[in-house]
Specification:
The protein has about 400 residues and is of the alpha+beta class. It has 3 domains: about 130 residues, no CATH class; about 160 residues, D-amino Acid Aminotransferase, Chain A, domain 1 (2-Layer Sandwich), CATH 3.30.470; about 70 residues, no CATH class. It is built from 14 helices and 14 strands. The strands form 2 sheets. A 7-stranded antiparallel β-sheet has the order 2-1-7-3-4-5-6. The chain starts with a helix and ends with a helix. The relative contact order is 0.12. The mean pLDDT is about 90.
Length: about 400
Amino acid sequence: MLELVPRLSIVSIRFARLRRLGHLGFPFTLGREESIPMRKIGSIARHALPGSSSRWGRPINRAVMLVLWPAGAASDILRMMRSTPPSEQAASGWGRICRGFDAYRLAITHNIPPLEYHLYELHRAEQRARMGEYLYWTEVQIHDWLNRKQGADSALVQDKNRFAAQCARFELPHVPTLAVFEKGKQALPEIPFMPNVPALWIKDLHGTGGSGAQRFFRENESYRDSKGNQWTPQQLVEMLQSRTCIVQPCIFNHPVIANISNDKLASLRVITGIHRNGIAEVIGCVFYLPHGNRLTSVAGITCAIDSETGRIERAIFLGHGNADLDRHPDTGKPIAGTVLPFWSQSLELARRAHETAFAPFVTLGWDIALTPEGPVLLETNKGWGPMHYQIVYRRPLGQTRFPAIVSQYL
């Protein structure tokens, strides 16, 4: 019986992989104009999917994609039709059915995921005319493909301590590292770590999206976590020794940001691309505001920003029907119209970091904290959320500098 458990685990993992392959589209493209730069990028991204380390793994994976995509697309459409709130549904049942068939047709002929058909409102004529200019989530493999081609070391951005060390090497403002714990041992510093700063921030060393995030505030001789539990410094160290994580001092929002948000840290994501001549350029920006009990702002309230002034133009509740927000749900403060502090300095910091310390990466998404003292790098991301940008700005990446930059490497 005990031997059966790991066998079932292996089977479930393989089934999950097969299921995922059934939602990636066909391994080729149909019905797209390859003369459009974004379609050329999408075509190459599809060719790079899915990778495999075995000789026969890649052709088998592609065969699975070919067979399962029609069923995977259909199941996604049916699930969305059942879960769509009445306020977002088509005017009639017949209209919903017609829209479902339309989404399925584009899934089969253009490999457009049904979710993004819904999010980008491709049933509307003006949006339909631009559907060839979107970067779809099934094509974001292009980031890894290009970075590998340029010899970029993914661990440099995935390992939070290596990222901080690289920033320190090039004198880029960043959150310093207090300690690193890995596989039950303290990796940094060389002497035994004992916390003594006013506030601590802890997150997974190799995680994404703020995984494993915890925040602790010092109160007299102990620390209090977000749930109100008290920890002695020694208890904190014992907890850290059971994790693979990085420990940093907590930083805080600039008063302008604190005025429109709750007490958690907001982040500005600056998306940059680097030209072959080594000059980095800003592709776009998204501002994330935390809400509720979440400790991070990742995929929270998502804001579009005027690229010239740093003024927030629009805020949406990402994941909650992507509804427009006039005010922060926790504080009631108006969001749109706020001008972000240190705007030009933040853009310059992202460009400088890309050019000097992370040049092998073709595109990156920089998470920047706007503190009272100025912009500070939190981390950078290979996968920087094209979907978030395209939703909040209501325009495809094909209308930015993204295709012009990426096309230089194809």
